[in-house]
Amino acid sequence: MAFERIFGIQKIGAEKQAKSQSTGMTLTKKIITTKNAPRHNAPFSQGVVLDTTLYVSGVIGMDKDTMKLVDGDFSAEVRQTLRNLGAILQAANSSYEKVVKVTVFLSDLNDFVALNNVYKEFFTKDFPARSAFQVSKLPMNARVEIEAVAATGNMKTICCH
């Protein structure tokens, strides 16, 4: 509740506005929900936009219709995970090109090369910053989970090559 002490929060439909007492700046918080990616009964949102920044919760390679992990090898699971991520990005008026940070959780770091091969099908240039970690267990015994931070709306990429 510290956030509520710092920011006065008013609920506006699915959006919440927070007004900073120190700067007078109004922030808009929007909860992102889409039927095009698996939705859980767990207490978290698929994504949250704060002003123009989208925070995507961890997604796994679950089929939205069966609510089970996709059949196939590790690459198939990564591919479905990234499709689910794409559905949430799209619901928030974002895209793979607007992703600025990705965190990858792997059940086996030896799958890192296979991850990269599929990852490059979705992120083709000007790659986002990324971290990858091996973890002992993921939901539903998934082999990969990915969370992301992305811009929404208009964005210009400037490269320093």
From TrEMBL:
Residue intervals passing through the bilayer: none
InterPro entries per the UniProt record, alphabetical: RidA, RidA_CS, RutC-like_sf, YjgF/YER057c/UK114
Gene Ontology molecular function: any one: deaminase activity
PROSITE patterns, A to Z: UPF0076
CC per GO annotation: cytosol; mitochondrion
Pfam assignment, any one: Ribonuc_L-PSP
Family designation: Belongs to the RutC family.
The protein's name: Uncharacterized protein
Organism lineage: Eukaryota, Metazoa, Ecdysozoa, Arthropoda, Hexapoda
